[in-house]
Write a structure and sequence with these properties.
Elements: H1 2-31, E1 41-45, E2 49-54, E3 57-64, H2 67-77, H3 80-89, E4 93-99, E5 102-111, E6 114-122, H4 129-132, H5 135-138, E7 147-153, H6 159-173, E8 177-182, E9 195-200, H7 208-216, E10 222-225, H8 231-242, E11 246-252, H9 256-265, H10 272-284, E12 287-291, E13 308-311, E14 314-317, E15 322-327, E16 330-334
Helix pairs in contact: 7-8, 8-10
Length: 343
């Protein structure tokens, strides 16, 4: 009887492995569809056809996202404790994943009670900064040792790629300790000339506010916060910039001018004076905001020749680097015509 039970268990394990192999083959075939290599996004919702986005246009692959395929992806992309939380609590989870020499940033969620996953395909290597931005635009920032740099723009505009290229360029010239707090880790930085500490939310730390406080004791030369999403992270980033670190992050805004209003809007009315004072201090220590414009292609990189925007009803070319100052309790954006063109 024991022998029969052991044989049955082995059979189930073998069947499970074969099923996983089948789903892996299905996903591999999806990646080899015509033009799939140029796709920026993959959309998988259980029971519906799989869609991919190429040059901003959604295309139906004609292939179904099966229950088994979604289960396979959840198992492969999420850590064990995340899988349990995802299945039991139907929470949304961000993740990064490498598969078949490709790297993805993804989000697992539920729609209509069914599991769903969206994958953003990332470039295999960090592009050179000169390939996506005129170096003259960033030249003034290369010598900074402290302050706050924000790269702003809508989803898909190339914010993360721009920051990654800038950090990679900085790391080439002078040995630095670069510490990142990301959700998830998107680009892997080269470690040839600098010391790199890439920390991922949910694996290496569990709170951006606490992670930023800890980072100040880890003595980074450059501190990257993947995205500022709430007032606690904003407050901690300003504190880090005040303390003498060079802090880089992103904000979801349509332009550089809106970034300052967004910063203000994180806080209640009775907190804003103190935060404006902090931001004004950072401004004297170099608070820069720059925008990246949406361009639907893979890799998703910011492009030049962005449309115009305004600041205090004064037009400025979107994509220039803007120094932010405080005047009469209102945000005032200033820009210098000689800072270079491009987004």
């Amino acid at each position: 009887m024991a022998a029969i039970s052991e044989q049955t268990g082995q059979t189930k394990v073998l069947e499970g492995k074969r099923a996983a192999d089948r789903e892996e083959t299905i996903f591999t075939e999806l990646l080899t569809l015509p033009n799939a290599e140029q796709a920026s996004d993959f959309y998988l919702i259980e029971g519906q056809n799989i869609y991919i986005r190429i040059n901003g246009e959604l295309k139906n692959t004609g292939r179904m996202a099966s229950t088994r395929l979604l289960a396979y992806l959840v198992q492969k992309t999420l850590m064990e404790h995340e899988q349990k939380a995802f299945q039991e609590k139907s929470i949304d989870i961000d993740f990064s994943w490498s598969f078949a020499d490709r790297r993805f940033r993804g989000n697992a969620y539920h729609a209509g009670g069914q599991p769903a996953i969206v994958l953003r395909q990332l470039p295999n290597t960090i592009p050179e900064l000169r390939a996506i931005q005129p170096l003259a635009v960033w030249h003034r920032l290369f010598s900074l040792s402290h302050g706050l740099i924000l790269v702003c723009g809508p989803t898909g505009s190339g914010k993360s790629t721009t920051i990654a290229a800038f950090i990679e360029e900085l790391a080439k010239h002078t040995p630095r300790h670069i510490l990142t707090l990301e959700d998830p880790v998107e680009y892997i930085f080269t470690k040839e000339t600098s010391l790199i500490s890439q920390r991922e939310f949910g694996r290496d730390f569990f709170s951006f506010e606490a992670g930023l406080r800890s980072a100040l004791r880890e003595m980074p030369d450059i501190l990257l916060v993947g995205e500022i999403r709430d007032k606690e992270t904003m407050r901690a980033a300003l504190m880090a910039a005040e303390s003498g670190s060079l802090v880089l992050s992103t904000l979801h805004t349509m332009g550089a001018a809106e970034a300052l209003l967004r910063m203000d809007g994180f806080f209640a009315e009775n907190e804003r004076d103190a935060i404006r004072s902090q931001a004004a201090t950072c401004a004297s220590k170099h608070l820069f905001t720059g925008t990246a414009s949406r361009k639907e292609r893979r890799p998703r990189l910011p492009h030049r020749g962005a449309p115009s925007d305004t600041c205090n009803d004064k037009p400025y070319p979107t994509g220039k680097i803007h120094a932010a100052n405080l005047l009469n309790d209102k945000w005032k954006c200033t820009w210098d015509a000689d800072k270079g063109d491009g987004a």
